[in-house]
Design brief:
two-stranded antiparallel sheet, 174 residues
């Protein structure tokens, strides 16, 4: 194992210049790609809005809107060269936070915001719990119901993230 101190200064400067050049090229490539194919983020968001509206309409027509637990979430962030990283499994805040919006008027007041740490493994136990189904003891995660119903629930303060993929192509060692 080597440290930066082991590398001659001339090579460190060259390495830094190459990294800067790569970051500049990546930004230029992103701009070129968007100019060629367009940024479809607005189109995708509009399509999602339209389909969510269809779900709301159907639930309103069947008079079940306010009894339906609705969870809208996305995928975690993906590195596109930031910090010289790619993929989504590096433990940085931008790749671990996931947008999540819940609508369930029976338990959650509109505009409620929580700063509690919930994880994707909590989704299934929450849905089972709210459906009145006993959560199997072998299932990872916890139901969020206490976050909706208790003033100061005993909730997790931390969690462990671990990832390795070795000896596979990315060679991320444990």
């Amino acid at each position: 194992t080597h440290t930066m101190a082991d590398i001659p200064e001339k090579q460190v400067k060259r390495l830094r210049a190459l990294i800067q050049e790569a970051e500049t090229n990546l930004a230029a490539a992103k701009e070129l790609l968007i100019s060629l194919v367009g940024d479809d983020t607005e189109v995708m968001a509009s399509s999602k809005d339209e389909n969510i509206g269809k779900v709301f309409t159907a639930l309103t027509e069947t008079k079940t809107l306010d009894e339906t637990f609705m969870l809208f979430t996305g995928d975690n962030g993906f590195f596109h060269g930031e910090w010289q990283r790619f993929d989504k499994r590096f433990m940085h805040e931008v790749s671990s936070r996931v947008p999540m919006v819940i609508r369930y008027p029976k338990l959650i007041k509109p505009g409620t915001v929580s700063d509690k740490m919930v994880l994707n493994v909590d989704i299934a136990p929450t849905m089972l719990d709210l459906a009145g189904v006993k959560v199997p003891t072998t299932m990872h995660g916890r139901s969020w119901a206490p976050l909706f119903t208790e003033k100061d629930p005993d909730w997790r303060k931390d969690w462990l993230y671990e990832y390795f993929e070795y000896p596979q192509p990315h060679k991320v060692k444990p």
